Known about the structure:
Blueprint: H1 5-12, E1 20-24, E2 29-31, H2 32-48, E3 56-60, H3 65-76, E4 80-83, H4 90-100, E5 104-107, H5 112-121, E6 126-129, H6 137-143, E7 159-165, E8 173-178, H7 179-192, E9 200-203, H8 210-223, E10 226-229, H9 235-241, E11 247-250, H10 252-260, E12 274-277, H11 284-294, E13 299-304, E14 308-312, E15 329-330, E16 335-339, E17 352-357, E18 364-365, H12 369-375, E19 382-390, E20 393-396, E21 399-402, E22 408-413, E23 418-420, E24 423-425, H13 427-435, E25 440-450, E26 454-463, H14 471-479, E27 490-494, H15 507-513
Bound molecules: malonyl-coenzyme A (MLC) and adenosine monophosphate.
Malonyl-coenzyme A is lined by residues 205-206, 209-212, 232-233, 251, 253, 278-279, 303-305, 420-423, 453, 484-485.
Amino acid sequence: MNANLFALFESRFPADRSACCIETHDGLYYTWDDLDRATAKLANLLTALKLPAGARVAVQVEKSPEALFLYLATLRAGYVYLPLNTAYQEAEIDYFVGNAEPAVVVCSSSNFGWVSKVAFAHNTAHVFTLDDNRTGSLLQRAAAQPDTFETVPRADDDLAAILYTSGTTGRSKGAMLTHRNLASNALTLNEYWGWRSDDVLLHMLPIFHVHGLFVASHGALLAGAKMIWAPRLDMGQILKFIPRCTVMMGVPTYYVRMVQESRFDKELCKNMRLFVSGSAPLLLETFDAFRERTGHTILERYGMSETVMLVSNPYDTALGDRIGGTVGMPLPGVSVRVMDGEGNACQPGVIGNVEVKGPNVFKGYWRMPEKTAEEFTADGWFKTGDVGRFGGAIVSQAGERKVPDDYLTIVGRSKDLIISGGYNVYPKEIESFIDEMPGVVESAVIGVPHADFGEAVVAVVVRKPGADIDEANMIGTLKSRIANFKVPKRVHVVDELPRNTMGKVQKNVLRQQFATL
Ligand code: MLC
Ligand code: AMP
């Protein structure tokens, strides 16, 4: 059997291929036939390039149906897809391209100048452009290709995608996901969340991370369900499209903003069957307010780039309630354990490190066998870096609620990570940029509570005697060098950083000090 993920999707295409597969926010319709033909043309183009086996196709483009087709065509042709956040700037792209050595790079035409320079410097053989208005050299070249293509056979363990996740120390690591990782997770979610062929997914997430590219798109593709496709979070478009939709997924910021919109109510959402939240903690306050406003109980789930989805609140009420503040139960086929520092499993109610195992767990970090080995226990469990507990209780204004022992609650992270609006920011990376700036002795980057983004990035900077550090200047300089979501919202200049007796910076002290910013 062909384990190629695309072959799985193909096997689930609806019988009527003239049905709508993607409707865009600006009124375009793509049928399942269109998807089939477009991915065939792109797969033929990739094949015609005679790329080496296992070649990576790195893509930094704005969201469009054609960008999704490029992902699917890469799978179909048997190559490895490498999506890149559109906010990444030159230094970041230089690292990813240098590390992954893609044979093909696809970028927007406005970035072609600098992206092609970076790509050619790293010996990438082919650089194409793709814009979100159905133009660019990629589509021009693909137009001349045949519109049928025999999906290339792949084995379970062959790579399908590499997703870069930032590292707590050092540079980003490329999580290698296989066809089996993605297929097993998609099949599990298909069943667990009750996907139906008559579902309509409101797709508003970016398609360069797990949530939008895999969880959302795979769900609809596997169900043979239609997607309404919008380029970014936009309340106007939610109000316009939600009455025709049945499923929506978002990071918590999406729900915070929906609750703030008074026109978002029960009547508007009456066709909906499922709202999913993930990628960052959803505040109980948002969970409750959303239910009050719409009558819908958000389903919160937990996952990561290395594992796709791990744990989910139930869709089927026969399995249990969706409990706000928890991420639910391990998905079928996924094992989750909470361990203390001595390698023993914690009792329910006791907090420890979350470790996982299953067919969804990635193959390792690209060309980093030592880092891969560090992240797995001797008995083969992946250390998520998240801290949580099974069972226990959720305390809210409404009182204390006992949580069943098979429900997981994520209470924090052992990794030094900030999640802002669903994007991960590793303080170390930002600190190294700041520390190189003139007049800076050292810096500490922390996350502080933020009503919209959940956490906001804040930098605390120690200046050299007599140096004049200007907050706006520093923010401006950082904006030109790193992705905008990583740039500190505020910079505080201090005389020294608080340290413990070991000389380690006490970030918890700084977090408390700046918590009310
Ligand atoms: C944008 N900005 C952010 C930001 N997004 N700042 C902090 N954190 C963010 N996430 C800043 C910009 O730099 C800009 O600043 C200003 O906000 C306005 O930019 P924008 O592009 O207009 O913002 P907006 O459209 O409102 O975007 C916010 C957002 C977006 C929350 C909608 O960030 C988003 O779509 N996030 C989703 C992330 C996601 O898909 N995560 C999944 C990861 S997968 P300035 O100063 O220039 O004005 C994963 C695994 C799993 O984690 O479990 O799913
Ligand atoms: P990423 O590396 O971008 O895939 O992000 C994965 C991380 O996001 C996880 O390790 C968690 O820290 C966090 N995360 C994802 N979903 C949730 C959730 N529902 N609640 C809390 N944290 C989450």
